[in-house]
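Appendix C reproduces, verbatim, an entry submitted by the partner laboratory led by Prof. M.T., so that reviewers can inspect both the input and the predicted structure.
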Amino acid sequence: MPKIAVAQIEIFDELNKNLRKVLNFIDKASTKNADLVCFPESCLGEDFLNINCQEIKAIQEKCKKKSIYCIFGAHIKENNKIFNSAILVNRLGKIQYVYKKINLFPDLDLKQTTSGKNNRVIETDFGKIGIIICWDFAFPENIRKLSESGAQIIFCPSYLLNNAKISKGVFRSYPLTRAFENLAYFVSCDAFTDEVLSESYICSPLKILNKIQNKEGIIFSNLNINKIKMLRKFYNHV
Protein backbone atom coordinates (compact mmCIF):
# COMPACT_ATOMS: atom_id res chain seq x y z
CA MET A 1 0.00 0.00 0.00
CA PRO A 2 2.00 3.03 -1.23
CA LYS A 3 2.11 6.19 0.85
CA ILE A 4 1.80 9.27 -1.33
CA ALA A 5 2.87 12.79 -0.34
CA VAL A 6 1.72 16.04 -1.95
CA ALA A 7 3.90 19.10 -1.34
CA GLN A 8 2.01 22.35 -1.94
CA ILE A 9 4.92 24.78 -1.89
CA GLU A 10 5.51 28.44 -2.52
CA ILE A 11 7.40 29.13 -5.74
CA PHE A 12 9.89 31.97 -6.09
CA ASP A 13 11.69 33.76 -8.92
CA GLU A 14 15.04 32.38 -7.76
CA LEU A 15 15.99 28.90 -8.99
CA ASN A 16 18.24 27.99 -6.06
CA LYS A 17 15.59 29.08 -3.56
CA ASN A 18 13.06 26.80 -5.26
CA LEU A 19 15.56 23.95 -5.31
CA ARG A 20 16.22 24.26 -1.59
CA LYS A 21 12.48 24.18 -0.97
CA VAL A 22 12.05 21.01 -3.04
CA LEU A 23 14.95 19.26 -1.32
CA ASN A 24 13.57 20.24 2.09
CA PHE A 25 10.14 18.82 1.31
CA ILE A 26 11.64 15.59 -0.02
CA ASP A 27 13.20 15.26 3.43
CA LYS A 28 9.80 15.92 5.04
CA ALA A 29 8.15 13.26 2.88
CA SER A 30 10.90 10.75 3.60
CA THR A 31 10.61 11.33 7.35
CA LYS A 32 7.00 10.09 7.11
CA ASN A 33 8.07 7.08 5.00
CA ALA A 34 6.36 8.26 1.82
CA ASP A 35 6.96 6.21 -1.32
CA LEU A 36 6.48 9.18 -3.66
CA VAL A 37 6.26 12.93 -3.24
CA CYS A 38 4.61 15.11 -5.88
CA PHE A 39 5.42 18.80 -6.38
CA PRO A 40 3.60 21.50 -8.41
CA GLU A 41 3.98 22.37 -12.06
CA SER A 42 7.03 24.57 -12.72
CA CYS A 43 8.12 24.24 -9.09
CA LEU A 44 11.71 25.08 -10.02
CA GLY A 45 10.52 28.36 -11.52
CA GLU A 46 10.63 29.81 -15.01
CA ASP A 47 14.30 29.08 -15.80
CA PHE A 48 14.90 26.99 -18.92
CA LEU A 49 16.92 23.98 -17.76
CA ASN A 50 18.90 21.21 -19.37
CA ILE A 51 17.74 17.80 -18.18
CA ASN A 52 21.32 17.12 -17.02
CA CYS A 53 21.72 20.36 -15.06
CA GLN A 54 23.14 20.40 -11.54
CA GLU A 55 19.79 21.39 -9.99
CA ILE A 56 18.03 18.31 -11.35
CA LYS A 57 21.01 16.16 -10.40
CA ALA A 58 20.66 17.46 -6.83
CA ILE A 59 17.06 16.20 -6.76
CA GLN A 60 18.19 12.86 -8.16
CA GLU A 61 20.85 12.54 -5.46
CA LYS A 62 18.34 13.39 -2.73
CA CYS A 63 15.86 10.77 -4.03
CA LYS A 64 18.59 8.15 -4.05
CA LYS A 65 19.71 9.07 -0.54
CA LYS A 66 16.15 8.93 0.81
CA SER A 67 14.98 6.02 -1.39
CA ILE A 68 11.90 7.89 -2.58
CA TYR A 69 10.18 8.62 -5.88
CA CYS A 70 9.63 12.26 -6.81
CA ILE A 71 7.56 14.07 -9.46
CA PHE A 72 8.46 17.72 -10.02
CA GLY A 73 7.84 20.37 -12.65
CA ALA A 74 10.43 22.25 -14.70
CA HIS A 75 10.83 23.92 -18.08
CA ILE A 76 13.22 21.71 -20.02
CA LYS A 77 15.20 22.91 -23.03
CA GLU A 78 15.65 20.26 -25.69
CA ASN A 79 16.72 20.76 -29.31
CA ASN A 80 16.16 24.52 -29.05
CA LYS A 81 12.60 23.99 -27.85
CA ILE A 82 11.12 24.53 -24.40
CA PHE A 83 8.81 21.91 -22.89
CA ASN A 84 6.69 22.33 -19.77
CA SER A 85 7.71 19.04 -18.16
CA ALA A 86 7.00 16.78 -15.21
CA ILE A 87 10.01 14.68 -14.27
CA LEU A 88 9.77 11.35 -12.45
CA VAL A 89 12.86 10.35 -10.47
CA ASN A 90 12.89 6.86 -8.93
CA ARG A 91 14.32 5.55 -5.66
CA LEU A 92 17.67 4.89 -7.30
CA GLY A 93 17.98 8.53 -8.30
CA LYS A 94 17.41 7.79 -11.98
CA ILE A 95 15.15 9.84 -14.23
CA GLN A 96 12.53 7.24 -15.11
CA TYR A 97 10.24 9.42 -17.22
CA VAL A 98 9.86 12.97 -18.51
CA TYR A 99 6.33 13.93 -19.45
CA LYS A 100 5.96 16.95 -21.74
CA LYS A 101 2.69 18.83 -21.31
CA ILE A 102 0.43 18.16 -24.28
CA ASN A 103 -2.45 20.58 -23.73
CA LEU A 104 -0.97 24.05 -23.32
CA PHE A 105 -3.00 26.76 -21.62
CA PRO A 106 -4.03 29.62 -23.97
CA ASP A 107 -2.14 32.92 -23.55
CA LEU A 108 0.31 31.41 -21.07
CA ASP A 109 2.09 28.23 -22.12
CA LEU A 110 1.85 29.02 -25.82
CA LYS A 111 4.10 32.06 -25.52
CA GLN A 112 7.19 30.08 -24.62
CA THR A 113 6.65 26.34 -24.81
CA THR A 114 6.16 23.58 -27.33
CA SER A 115 3.43 21.00 -26.90
CA GLY A 116 4.42 17.44 -26.10
CA LYS A 117 3.14 14.67 -28.34
CA ASN A 118 2.92 11.44 -26.36
CA ASN A 119 2.24 10.02 -22.93
CA ARG A 120 2.35 6.57 -21.40
CA VAL A 121 1.90 4.58 -18.21
CA ILE A 122 4.96 4.13 -15.99
CA GLU A 123 5.66 1.00 -13.94
CA THR A 124 6.86 1.65 -10.38
CA ASP A 125 7.59 -0.76 -7.54
CA PHE A 126 4.19 0.04 -5.99
CA GLY A 127 1.95 0.15 -9.05
CA LYS A 128 1.29 1.68 -12.46
CA ILE A 129 1.06 5.46 -12.65
CA GLY A 130 0.27 8.15 -15.18
CA ILE A 131 1.30 11.80 -15.21
CA ILE A 132 -0.46 14.83 -16.68
CA ILE A 133 0.13 18.54 -16.10
CA CYS A 134 -2.48 21.11 -15.04
CA TRP A 135 -4.62 22.07 -18.09
CA ASP A 136 -4.36 18.50 -19.36
CA PHE A 137 -7.16 17.78 -16.87
CA ALA A 138 -9.59 19.53 -19.25
CA PHE A 139 -9.06 16.79 -21.84
CA PRO A 140 -10.51 13.64 -20.25
CA GLU A 141 -9.94 11.47 -23.30
CA ASN A 142 -6.17 11.60 -22.74
CA ILE A 143 -6.55 10.63 -19.09
CA ARG A 144 -8.84 7.77 -20.10
CA LYS A 145 -6.08 6.41 -22.34
CA LEU A 146 -3.82 6.22 -19.29
CA SER A 147 -6.39 4.39 -17.17
CA GLU A 148 -7.24 2.00 -20.01
CA SER A 149 -3.52 1.27 -20.28
CA GLY A 150 -3.48 0.24 -16.63
CA ALA A 151 -2.69 3.42 -14.67
CA GLN A 152 -3.86 3.00 -11.07
CA ILE A 153 -2.70 6.42 -9.84
CA ILE A 154 -2.71 9.58 -11.95
CA PHE A 155 -0.61 12.54 -10.84
CA CYS A 156 -1.37 16.10 -11.91
CA PRO A 157 1.23 18.73 -10.96
CA SER A 158 -0.51 22.08 -11.45
CA TYR A 159 -0.26 25.84 -11.33
CA LEU A 160 -3.96 26.73 -11.33
CA LEU A 161 -4.13 30.45 -12.03
CA ASN A 162 -7.08 32.28 -10.53
CA ASN A 163 -9.10 33.04 -13.64
CA ALA A 164 -12.18 35.26 -13.67
CA LYS A 165 -13.49 33.34 -16.69
CA ILE A 166 -13.37 29.95 -14.96
CA SER A 167 -15.22 29.28 -11.71
CA LYS A 168 -13.12 27.96 -8.84
CA GLY A 169 -15.75 25.24 -8.62
CA VAL A 170 -14.45 23.81 -11.89
CA PHE A 171 -10.93 23.48 -10.49
CA ARG A 172 -12.23 22.05 -7.21
CA SER A 173 -14.40 19.41 -8.87
CA TYR A 174 -12.04 17.91 -11.42
CA PRO A 175 -9.78 15.78 -9.13
CA LEU A 176 -12.64 13.68 -7.76
CA THR A 177 -14.43 13.63 -11.11
CA ARG A 178 -11.37 12.34 -12.94
CA ALA A 179 -10.78 9.77 -10.20
CA PHE A 180 -14.30 8.35 -10.49
CA GLU A 181 -14.61 8.34 -14.26
CA ASN A 182 -11.25 6.55 -14.57
CA LEU A 183 -11.57 4.39 -11.43
CA ALA A 184 -8.09 5.45 -10.40
CA TYR A 185 -6.54 7.46 -7.62
CA PHE A 186 -6.09 11.06 -8.73
CA VAL A 187 -3.45 13.26 -7.10
CA SER A 188 -3.43 16.99 -7.87
CA CYS A 189 -0.65 19.21 -6.56
CA ASP A 190 -1.03 22.98 -6.84
CA ALA A 191 1.43 25.69 -5.80
CA PHE A 192 0.99 28.17 -2.96
CA THR A 193 1.09 31.73 -4.33
CA ASP A 194 -1.26 34.71 -4.49
CA GLU A 195 -2.07 34.10 -8.16
CA VAL A 196 -3.16 30.46 -8.01
CA LEU A 197 -5.99 28.50 -6.40
CA SER A 198 -3.62 26.91 -3.86
CA GLU A 199 -5.67 23.74 -3.38
CA SER A 200 -4.28 20.21 -3.70
CA TYR A 201 -6.16 16.91 -3.43
CA ILE A 202 -5.60 13.19 -3.06
CA CYS A 203 -8.74 11.41 -4.29
CA SER A 204 -9.92 7.83 -4.50
CA PRO A 205 -12.63 7.09 -7.09
CA LEU A 206 -15.29 7.50 -4.39
CA LYS A 207 -14.09 10.32 -2.12
CA ILE A 208 -11.48 12.93 -1.27
CA LEU A 209 -8.89 11.27 0.95
CA ASN A 210 -6.91 14.37 1.86
CA LYS A 211 -6.55 18.00 0.82
CA ILE A 212 -4.64 21.17 1.61
CA GLN A 213 -5.96 24.67 0.94
CA ASN A 214 -4.53 28.19 1.03
CA LYS A 215 -1.27 27.39 2.76
CA GLU A 216 2.10 25.81 2.20
CA GLY A 217 2.45 22.29 3.51
CA ILE A 218 2.51 18.59 2.84
CA ILE A 219 -0.26 15.99 3.01
CA PHE A 220 -0.17 12.19 2.93
CA SER A 221 -2.44 9.29 2.06
CA ASN A 222 -2.01 5.52 1.90
CA LEU A 223 -3.42 4.19 -1.38
CA ASN A 224 -4.80 0.67 -1.68
CA ILE A 225 -4.05 -0.52 -5.20
CA ASN A 226 -6.16 -3.65 -4.71
CA LYS A 227 -9.18 -1.40 -4.16
CA ILE A 228 -8.74 -0.01 -7.67
CA LYS A 229 -8.78 -3.52 -9.09
CA MET A 230 -11.97 -4.32 -7.14
CA LEU A 231 -13.73 -1.11 -8.20
CA ARG A 232 -12.92 -1.71 -11.86
CA LYS A 233 -14.46 -5.15 -11.68
CA PHE A 234 -17.56 -3.82 -9.89
CA TYR A 235 -18.29 -0.64 -11.87
CA ASN A 236 -16.83 -1.90 -15.14
CA HIS A 237 -16.68 1.47 -16.95
CA VAL A 238 -12.92 1.40 -17.50
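Helices lie at 15-31, 54-66, 140-148, 168-182, 225-235. Additional entries are available on request from the coordinating office.
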